[in-house]
Amino acid sequence: MSRIQLNDEIRMHLDACLKDYINFSKKCTKELQDFIYYFLQYKSYISPFPFLLLQVTASTLAAKIVVKMEVREKKLFENDVFAAAVYMDPRYKVLLSQKQRVDAQTHLVRLHDKILSLQPSLVSDNASGSSEDPISLVSD
């Protein structure tokens, strides 16, 4: 493979372009992280879309990232395991719809039953303990 020889002027121009690109990437990454923090903190109280549209109009890359994030978010919240994990964290539990909360509770109860079925000694300990309904243990 042959190497390309660049004169100093072209090399300086490329260096400047790369530095600009790196700085722009850092700025975009920081703004995206700030937005994600804002979105997770205030999603249930304030619709982020007007804020989002103001930020995105200047950059098609940012718009594409936002669209992909929204698609990914929908897929994640459709997953019972993810919904159960979010359900268990009181900070983000407010992000779940009522149906997602019920699905998460059902998943946790099924997981509980599966664990007990895999470990028979726990079943005998649990039988001598509380007779509460498993759903009541994970309810709001």
SSE layout and pairings?
Layout: H1 8-42, H2 49-56, H3 60-78, H4 80-88, H5 98-118, H6 120-128, H7 134-138
Helix pairs in contact: 4-5
Estimate the global geometry from the Cα principal axes.
elongated
What is the string of helix and strand elements?
HHHHHHH
Q: Report the radius of gyration as a whole number of Å.
A: 25 Å
By helix and strand content, what is the structural category? mainly alpha
Beta-strand proportion: under 5%
Separation, N- and C-terminal Cα atoms: 65 Å
Number of helices: 7
Q: Helical percent range?
A: over 70%
Largest sheet, in brief, is: none
Low-confidence region ranges: 44-48
Q: What is the average per-residue confidence, as pLDDT, rounded to a whole number? A: 75
How many domain regions? 2
Q: Count every beta strand, where a strand is a DSSP E run of 2 or more residues.
A: 0
Provide structural commentary.
By secondary structure, the protein is mainly α. It has two domains: 1-69, no CATH class; 79-140, no CATH class. It contains seven helices and no strands. It has helices spanning 8-42, 49-56, 60-78, 80-88, 98-118, 120-128, 134-138. Helix 4 (80-88) crosses helix 5 (98-118). The radius of gyration is 25 Å and the shape is elongated. The termini are far apart. Residues 44-48 have low confidence and may be disordered.
